[in-house]
Amino acid sequence: MKYLIRHPNAILGNDKLLVSLGEKGDLRGFFYPRRDGPQHVGESKACIYKGGKLLWLDSPEWNGKQASSDDTNVIRTHLSHFSGIEVSIHDIVHRSNPVLVRKYEITSKEHFEGKFYYYSNFQAGGTHRMNSAFCDVNNALLVQYMQNFYIGLASNPGFEDWQVGKIQDKGWVASARNDMEDGQLQQNMEDIGDMDSSIGWDLDLQPGETVTITIFVGIASERQPIYELMADVRKQSSDGIMHGSENDSIRWLSKKRSLELSALDDDPLFKNKLKALYDHSLLSLKLLTDPEGGAILAAPEFDPAFEMCGGYGFCWNRDAAESVLAFMNAGYPEYAEKFFGWCKKAQLPDGSWFQRYWLDAKEAPSWSNFDDTTQIDETGSTLYAIDRYYRELEGTKRAEFLENIRETVRKGAEYLIKRTEKGLHDPCRCLWESEIGIFSYTNAAIYAGLKGAAHLAEETDEHMLAKKWSDRADLVRKETIDKLWLKEGYFSKGIIDNNIHRTIDSSMIGTFTPFGVLSPNDPDEKAMIVSMIEHIEKALQVPVNGYFGIKRYENDDYIGGNPWVVTTLWLSRALLILAMSLENKDDEYDLLVNKALEYIKWTMRSATSNGLLSEQVDKNTGKAAWARPLAWSCALFIENALLLDQLRSE
User: Fold this and answer.
1) pLDDT tens digits along 16-50
2) pLDDT for the residue 170
3) DSSP H or E run through 283
4) 162 within 8 A of 190, measured Cβ to Cβ
């Protein structure tokens, strides 16, 4: 089966359900019971039958505007049609039940008679095969199911018409999509196979009149629970559900580290927009985090068949480590604590961490199954982040965490020792998953991981281990500088096929931040940092959105070679840290801060209307491209916002 890749414009969810929406309110993702669970929907969207024609709300003939409420995950979509019909959609996921609540308000400027249909092409259990569906008219419930996934449709007011159809129009049952075209549904009660369905209502609107139809899309593991779930949610007012969810988001955000951003007082509009995107990025990270285990999804899956990429619905330690440190710095240290407990469970017997995982800590589909194709930076990043978290703890919590994570750190550090016997690491796959070799970024991650492990060993009075790991880290650092720093003034991407790869790669900035191979406090190393930044800007800048974004590396052709949000925010973070290392606020300071602000503004212009930050930015349109929201992008924006906030005291 050919899957349609559909990128979201908004996400919402609760502990059990993650939902993604298109910019005109079509349902694009329905993941249950975890964020990496099966994708249970092919299509699920509304249309209006008028004058013998179906007006699909996600079609180009509707003008749309979508935005989330401030401080909440309530999504509001307003659509207008040239015929005078307007539709407003309020979408919210129930605060505790796996139910999407969709409140449609339909208005017409002129008298209008027709139909309102809600069409669904579900794939219970992540497949169209072996599905079954039925309409229980007495209970006003339509259900599609497969094994232990039961998807229910109910509404207020109850639907008046229905069709349980077969997608391919095979046999005696019309597909629900085709059955709507004459404005009359056949009311088939049940069938099996590749199913679709439609529920409908008659419309008779006077000029200016508004009718409200609320649709509930719920999911449960068995037949009786879906009945009970949908009956219960129908008794609740949609406004009450919405306010409950809004209040939950507001309470959660009230714990954040607030931003003053006094350095931006001269530009209050930008300041307010940055604060809003800071909030949205925190909410995005929360929705991508598994509430039970603590692992963080890279992005909601949009390519489950791996047709155009390797998929994103998994946890990479590298990305997640940056995310939990951002959470910690923003006032949510509990996410880091839970994630490192997950890391302890996910660690492999040899002490390493795999390329990527399912959220339950099982190894995910991968092309890193061998020593020379694994990603060693995953292990270095994890140990680095564990140490950063430990340094923020106090009292008994500090001692308890160290005792609990001690063996995990030892195993991870010994793995890194084994993979760096010659100083530089053994051949492995790079962080971009594109090359096999020896890489500057990976060596930097190993250096930081071993230094972090050495610090933790000192804390437990294991001085010999601490010296062993620290000495190896120093050797990795020395060899990285001696063998990978080029006379042109930047770090090589790495050694590939025994040759120095001179391609300029943005990831070399990792040698400065976050991994600290180079320090701006040393004049020679500061000069190296400045030179790296200059080479990255010269070779990798892409003009779009009035500013410049940064590509991953020269001649990058992945998805057309777009600039990435992560790489751009790496550079802005480096510029801000460099500025804060200066003793005086002089012209150099102003230049560094202003450059950083330009990269941050570029990033903000690429966000979706609901504040989702993507992996990439389309180099032609300037809009969000590919995975969205990307946890890594959200984390780096949070870190940049927090650094900007520190400028008030500089």
Assistant:
1) 999 999 999 999 999 999 999 999 999 999 999 99
2) 62
3) helix 268-288
4) no
Nearest one of 570, 594, 589 to 578, comparing CA atoms:
589
pLDDT of residue 1: 42
Residue 190, strand partner residues: 134
8 A C-beta contact, residue 608 and residue 10: yes
The size of the chain, in residues, is 650
Q: Average pLDDT of the chain?
A: 96
Assess contact for 541 and 548: CB atoms under 8 A.
yes
The secondary structure of 322-381, three-state, reads HHHHHHHHCCCHHHHHHHHHHHHHHCCCCCCCCCCECCCCCECCCCCCCCCCCCCHHHHH
Q: Which helix (H) or strand (E) holds 209?
A: none
Supply the pLDDT for residue 546.
87
> Taking the CA of residue 318 as centre, how many other CA atoms within 13 Å lie in the half-sphere pointing to its CB?
25
Distance in angstroms (rounded) separating the CA atoms of residues 153 and 138: 14
Q: What CA–CA distance (Å, rounded) separates 455 from 453? A: 5
- Spatial CB neighbours of 438, under 8 Å, sequence gap ≥ 6: 424, 425, 426, 427, 428, 494, 495, 496
**Per-residue confidence (pLDDT) for residue 2, from 0 to 100:** 47
Burial code (b: 16+ CB inside 10 Å, e: under 16) for 434-460 equals ebbbbbbbbbbbbbbbbbbbbbbbebe
Beta strands (DSSP E) in 147-283 are: 149-156, 161-166, 190-193, 195-205, 210-220
pLDDT < 70: residue spans in the chain? 1-4, 70-71, 169-171, 648-650
Q: In terms of pTM, does the model score above 0.90? A: yes
Is residue 480 within 8 A of residue 454, CB to CB? The reply is no
CB distance 46 to 62 below 8 Å: no
Across-strand partners of 408? none
Q: What is the pLDDT of residue 307?
A: 87
For residue 650, count other CB atoms closer than 10 A to its CB. Answer: 12
Number of helices (H), then strands (E), in the chain: 14, 27
Q: What angle do CA 182, 138, 99 make, to 5 degrees?
A: 85
Residue 645 confidence (pLDDT) = 97
Contact 86, 64 (CB under 8 A): no
Q: How far apart are CA 514 and CA 521, in angstroms?
A: 15
d(CA 375, CA 370): 10
Q: How far is CA 43 from the centre of its chain?
A: 21
